[in-house]
Structures are given as C-alpha cells and as structure tokens.
Amino acid sequence: MSDQSTPPDIEKRPPNNNLLFAAVILVIILCAGAFVLLSSDEQPQPIVEVAPTAQPIQEYQTVEEPQPQIEPPAAQPQVERPPTRNVEPAPVVAPLPSLNESDAVVVARIDDYLSDQAMGLLLTDDVIRRAVVFIDNLAKGKVAVKHAPVERPQDGFSVMEGDILTIDPNSYERYTPYVKVFTSMSAAQIVRLYDEYKPLINDAYTEIGYSGDAFNQTLQEAIDLLLDTPEPKGDMPLLRNSVTYQYAYSEWERLPAAQKQLLRMGPENMKKVKAVLRNVQKELDNQ
Predict the structure, then answer these.
(1) Cα(192)–Cα(28) distance, rounded to whole angstroms?
(2) pLDDT tens digit sequence for 100-124
(3) 0.85 cut: is pTM over it?
(4) Which UniProt keywords apply (predicted)?
(5) What b/e string do you get for 247-276 counting C-beta neighbours within 10 Å, with b at 16 or more?
(6) Which sign does the torsion angle of CA 242, 247, 250, 255 carry?
C-alpha cells in the first residue's frame, strides 16, 4: 500500500514487528531426549546329580523287619505370582548444545510440534538470541524490529473509509496464522520446554548484560505488559495525520509500542493471545 495506508506507529516499524507473541514459544523449545533400555540377565543354576553310595554285601543273613509306611508329603498349593510388569526406564535428557550450536536442535524440536505451514513462518537463525532480545525489549514496551523471531505478514495494513475512519477488520486476518502458532501448545508444555532450555536462555541474557536468573522476571514483566493492553469493544477509529494514521483515542495513541501492536491484531486475536499468556503466567507462578 502507499504511505497513506499505515498509522504513524505502524509506518515507523516494518511489518515484521507485528509478531511479538511468537517469541514466547521460540525460547521454550525442549531439546531431544533419549531413552536407555534396562535389562536383567539371570543365569539358571546348574543341577548337580549325586551318585548314591554303594552298600557292602553282608555275608550273613539278616531278618527283615517290617518297614513303616511313609505317606507322601501333601502337595503344596500353587501360588499365583503377579505378572511381571514392563517398567519403562526413566528418560535420560541429552546434554544441551552450546548457544552457538543450538539452532539445529531448537528448530528440530519446533518441527515436532508445529505444522509445515507454521514452520514456514519462523526464522531459524539465532533462535534463542532473537527471542531473548525480543522479549527483553517487550518487557520495556518496545518492539525490537531486527530481532523479530518470525517472518512478516504478506498482506498490508488497510483501513475502511466512511463517516469514521476505522481499521479494516480484514486487516486482522493477516495475524491469524501467527496466533495459531502461539496457541498450538498448552501452557504446561510451553513452561516445561522453557525450563529445559533455561540454561541457554540465561546464557543469551548474560550476553546482553544481565546475570543470574534475571530472565524469569523479564518474561513475567513482558506478559504483564501485554495482559494490561486495553481491549476494544467495537471498531477501532483512526485519525489521518497528513500521510499517516494514528489512533483516534488519545489513551490508545499513548500506549507503549508493544501494546499498540497487540491492538492492531484485532479483538479476537488479542483474546486468544491473552488467554495463553494468562495460563503460562499461572504455570510460572506454580513453580
């Protein structure tokens, strides 16, 4: 579209800054695990036959005395033993690769969870570093364009002309494939995978000047900021400012860039993203 098709905040950012929500998935991908098969080999004990001792022949006659009748021992009742259960061995998690060599493992694990179409949306270089920097900026209300973890939408931003200038609802549909990526896993899976990759996440966070387990707090702050984004009840009116657009409501125009971006995804997409974020937040709180 021409320069007149995008609000000021939108035009200052290339369309690939529209994908903030997918970053959460990319930093929490679990490395591949391996199973160790356990077995027990019991060798049967050999049976040793003992030859009977030969008795000497007596040279004199003996009187045979009646032998007492010995009753055979009563048969012992058969005791049924419970069937042997096949106990699965405990999984052994493969050691994590270094941060520089982690892309292949991360991308392979993502491929286990997502469809081919979804995989086509993801950028596969420096996966963890991209996501860490993106979320660090997100917690501050910013959108790190150069570190976007996914490809930008193909369709452009559009508006509806009328008595009131509004965002075209069809413009929201360009975000639907990305929302499907974000909602394709449960919150428990997301947090479990995040925990598995936490050492590499912390390494990436250390590279940009932080220390220890600081990323946990940053992730919580990013989630809180997105959940605080106001939810429009109807159309989203705009104002044309020369060759650009801006939100008609000043309280929306003053929002941080990250929250304004979530607004541009549309009410329905926003609700789905927020639902996942709330569940992820609960899982993190329960740790």
Answers:
(1) 8
(2) 999 999 999 888 888 888 889 999 9
(3) no
(4) Membrane, Transmembrane, Transmembrane helix
(5) beeeebeebbbbbbbbbbbbeebbebbbeb
(6) negative
